[in-house]
Specification:
By secondary structure, this protein is of the alpha/beta class. It is built from 11 helices and 14 strands. Helix 3 packs across helix 4 and helix 8 packs across helix 11.
Amino acid sequence: MSSISSQPEPVIRAEGLVREYGGFRAVDGLSFTVRAGECYGLLGPNGAGKSTTLRMLIGLSAPQAGRIEVLGLPVPECSREVRSLIGVVPQADALDPDFTVAENLRVFGRYFGLRTEEVDARLDALLEVAGLAGKRDARIPELSGGMKRRLTLARALVNDPRVLFLDEPSTGLDPQARHLIWERLRRLLREGKTIVLTTHFMEEAQRLCDRLAIVDRGRLIAEAAPQVLIDEHIEPDVVEVSSADAGALASALGAIDGVARVERVGETVLAYCRVVAPLLAWLEARRDLRWLRRPANLEDVFLKLTGRDLRD
């Protein structure tokens, strides 16, 4: 995670954003700021309004109420100017299959008025960021899914943007590709870039983000650094216990000293503990139960605040 020693002026201001589609309010009075040099994450269930918010920030969709300012420019009024200063990694890669890796970068550079020679001067650096130094002349169908995703990141950097907007950047990637992208994003933060990302991966959010906004039904319900959210909302120790009779187990665990609350998920009971020792002693005497002790994490916060119901 990048360190922010001062409190620089926000590079993004969003105030009271509202966006409706056919009577459904996807974004409902959302307000936040993003400071220069930080990674700011938007977390939320499916349909929470994350991607809609991102589209408004980059000028692809206009808010029906509220105000947006990016790098000191109003959006959508100055969307063209803003898009020349930012980079965007969408959910879909949308690479041209008829071109090579290098040609995709050259063509994309033309959208920013960059000459081929200017892009070529940066090709080695862009391909190194993507871990594609040996794939300059490969065509897109020859690339794996992870390579395509990394190329999309390199493409977003072709204009040397000040702010990067990433919409679920590591979805569908294997662990090796995901960790490579995380390392590259941390490097960009060290170089002074500002990053705004949406993600469903709690580990990704916890590793990368300086601050997080948890959004549900278009509204901001919590905002802080990842560890602050964990400390404020969740007891320090979580013990997961499995049993075929989860109902009776939940009642028994809830009565043990130090257990603040329990949640039942199928055959597993999660015990959230202010003091964990009494529960551990109880479990040591129950050889018939399988259990796991772990520290509280961001996923616990997310599920507590947004619920466990499946969202489509």
